[in-house]
Amino acid sequence: MAAIETDAEPTKVLEFGLGDGTYCLDIGVIDEIVDAGELTRIPNSPDHVEGVMDLRGRTTTIVDPKTLFAIDEEGPRERIVVFDDDEIDEGGTVGWMVDEVFQVRDVAPEDVDQATTVDDKGVNGIVKSDDRFVVWVSPDVEEIGDLDAAELGAEGEEAEA
């Protein structure tokens, strides 16, 4: 019985906005959240790389997850979610430029629908929350980058419905 209870422990996630949608990440992969600052563009970088910024002496690569997930909606782009170097394998400090940060909350395993996203790279599941859906995404840029942008756009629209 105790093993079942352990398996059912909730996961803390950070909810954030990209365009009109709400997304979340496991809080365990996040180092900090900072205000968006001035970025230095990198010539010939991939489309999803916005640039770099100095974050307390660390050169931090800033990625636009809207490009990764084919999200067309504009937003205020106010915050940067910086990932823990030890938790993701991107070869340096990486942050995502998000429109806004909403909250940290617990997500119980029974509230996550993985059936519709079982083969989708970059998406861990859809969190059912009251009258809305929250897309639980992965910070693994290389894994997400392997996806076809049109395929991602279609999934995002379904998740938002």
TrEMBL record:
Cellular component per GO, a single term: cytosol
Biological process, per Gene Ontology: chemotaxis; signal transduction
Pfam family for this entry, one: CheW
InterPro entries xref list: CheW, CheW-like_dom_sf, CheW-lke_dom
Domain of life, per lineage: Archaea
Residue ranges constituting the CheW-like domain according to the UniProt record: 10-158
Protein name, as recorded: CheW protein
The organism of origin for this protein: Halorubrum lacusprofundi (strain ATCC 49239 / DSM 5036 / JCM 8891 / ACAM 34)
